[in-house]
## 1
Amino acid sequence: MNDGTYKAQQRLLEKFPKFAQLKIKNTHMIYLASDHAGYELKNQIGEFLKEMNLDFEDVGPHTYEAQDDYPDFIIPAAEKVAEKPLENKAIVLGGSGQGEALAANKVKGVRAALYYGGPKDIITLSRVHNNANVLSLGARFLTMDEIKEVIKLWLATDFTEEERHARRLEKILAYETKK
């Protein structure tokens, strides 16, 4: 997918917002989690999801603690996604989002993608090719307007189910479940 494809998809989402909303509604539940660096943006994302009439649960933190540890919130959010990995999703935030993506990816059934800026194709491809069910955002690198755009795009994008992408995900699942 190139930048032109992204722009075409973006125009469709803007032209047909109800269609985008229907696609997003396929998500059963969205879980939010962050560390201290993402705390304020996480709360703003919650308000944004309310405006979009989407079901979500804030896994935490519920108060700002400068010394908190992201695994305490990210792993429980990822575990909730893993309960229904094809339906549930999570949006997690940290300073760069990298540690949060690493923590989420330790949970079986979770496929976390990282975004902290750059081409929006990264967001689309995380869903189309990898069926990512967790989006990890770098709070120190993104504005709330950018985050809103990214969330709408990520939630409205479906997995392609092309054989080659499904095959690759099957291999990852086989590795995750081998004893």
## 2
Amino acid sequence: MNLFPARVYKIELPEDSTIALNQLQQNTKLTDLLVLESTDKAFIGQVKENSFKVISSAKYGAFCVLSGDFEGKVGSIEIRLHLTYKILSSILMLLPILSILLTLLRKEVEKPIELILPVLLVILFVRFIIVELNFRLISKKVLNRLTKIIRISAIKNVA
């Protein structure tokens, strides 16, 4: 099990990938940085000759990064958590551990074993409720948005 979720899809397009990438380029604010900013385009990021790396321009869009590679009518799309949210989630998961260490150093608790369960629950809550649930919901919305723009005809979840 990975600490952070990611999904890989194999896709098929009804036409050549150059047409799909051209459509994506028309709907993308081209920039080297994957930073959320106000725009009338559907995506923000980079679109190259046979690949792309974008985030959605919607308010929730920076949570997931979409990367894709194409050859002819087939390709693969990887959806993963944005680096910023990986760092923030890691900090949220490390805070309970740091608080236990500080508590143990100060010797404020008689039975330190009692602190293990709450710490584990907080870490599991952050990982499986906050990160995983948001990733599933947002990645589905972003993939649907991408499907409409580049007209994906078949999607198969690989990983």
## 3
Amino acid sequence: MNRYRVVRYLGYSIEILVLFVLQETPGLIPEIGGARPVMLIPAAVCIAMFEHETPAMVFGLAGGLLADFGAGGLLGFHGLLLAVVCFAVSLMAANLFQTNFFTALLTCAISEACLTLLQWVFFFVVHGYAYPLYALTAHYLPIFCYTFA
């Protein structure tokens, strides 16, 4: 393995761990409306824009599993979805669009919106809770907006 690749992967790993610690430390990042940002998703998607498909999927899986650990929900949900999203983003970044700030911002926003909506669908709509729209507007949309901001 190339020495620069090892250093780059080590840097990505440290970045993901630091963002996880920042995200999960209570009181470090202020809550707005009871929502805290999920910084691991945009970080994994941005890493996927610059890597090949397999490393992008591995870093997406790692970021998703750490997000699952922090959320305390179903273990593997974010890991699986973020691995698939990072694989797709890496494939699209290599073949379809040019990587720049605007495409990174747009890709992170679309990925975060898809993951947030899928989480809402699987955790509230499929289980048949009484007020799923309230959960979407009071919980998931503030998290999406705060993460995107």
